[in-house]
Structures are given as C-alpha cells and as structure tokens.
Amino acid sequence: MSSFRLTLLRHGATVAPAGMLIGHTDLSLSPLGEQQLASRNDYFVRIPPSSIASSDLGRCAGFARQLAATSGLDCHIDRNLREMHFGELDGLPMEQWSEQQRAAWALWSHNPVGYTGAGIEGWADFSARVNAAFRLWLQAGQGDHRVLITHGGVAKALLLEWLGLPAARHSQFWLAHAGMITLYWDDKYPPVLQGIDNEVVLGA
C-alpha cells in the first residue's frame, strides 16, 4: 500500500430530530446536510481522490457515489462500515425514551466497553467490525488519496484503534457534520494525524 493521504469525511446533518440516535436507522440528509457536504467539493477538486469507500447508509453513500462519479472512480460500499447500532434507542425520538432507556444510555456513555444493555452494540464488536472492513478496503484500494465517507462513531472507533487509545476516550474526539479528519498513512509507521477540520463554510 506504500504511503498516501487518508481523508475521513463525516456525513452532513440529517432530517433526524435533535437528540435522536440513528446508528442503523437510514434517514436522509436534510437540505442543510446537503449544503454542508457540497462545501467540501473544493477540497476534492484541489486534492482529487484515488479511492472512495462508504457505509451503505444513504446519509453517507449518496455523497460517496456523487464524488465517485465526478472523479471517474468506483465506489466501495460496505454495510460493515455502518455506525454503531443503538439497539432499542436506534431511531427512537428521545422524548419517547423510558426511564430505563435513559439510564441505559447514561451507563453506556460512561462505560462503552463494559455496558451492553438495551440491545446496544458492544464497543468491542463495533470497533472490530469497522476496523476489519476498513483494512479490507485499504488493501484493495489504490492511489495517493483514499477517502472514506463515514459516521461520527466510526471515525472515533478508527482513530482510537490507530492511536492505541481506550474506548473510554471516545468522547474526546468530536467531528461535526461534514467535518474532516486527514491523516498521512505509511505502512512502515503508525498513521500520522494531520488535522481535524470542523469548520464547515456553507456556500464555499
């Protein structure tokens, strides 16, 4: 694989109401979300992608397919690159959560590794799933700029794995809608984190 630039781009805002967890729930981007992703087009004009991958959920796959078509590339779509599944809470408006479900989410938030209630996907399984899928794509990809259109949780799981950090540190990484993470990747060395860009300028 040699060395290359790796860009992780989170999907834009969706039509989900505030506070809703939409791990595997397949909701579309809102008009704002479409604008947020469109604001990143100049970046990909300046630094064209050589390989593109995405979750199969529409909020990621739609832009990934557009970018691939514009770049004259195939798009690698993989359901194993989906966001974490939030069990009973997935797609359920927060105002409908029971007291038990609220307590379950609070417990998970403080201990994502040890807590597995409410049907929430275990962190170890989630991390293993997305990291394995990422490695398979990386081995099949090519060129000097690999681009993954992804989810916030997936980006966190990948970063924690690459940086050798425990899952309890997940809340210390925040990626805005259409936020970007850029890394320098060389097979001979650990990945080098070059930057996290959460400044999304609409109309850019």
From TrEMBL:
Pfam families: His_Phos_1. InterPro entries: His_Pase_superF_clade-1, His_PPase_superfam, PGM_Phosphatase. Coiled coil: none annotated. This is Histidine phosphatase family protein.
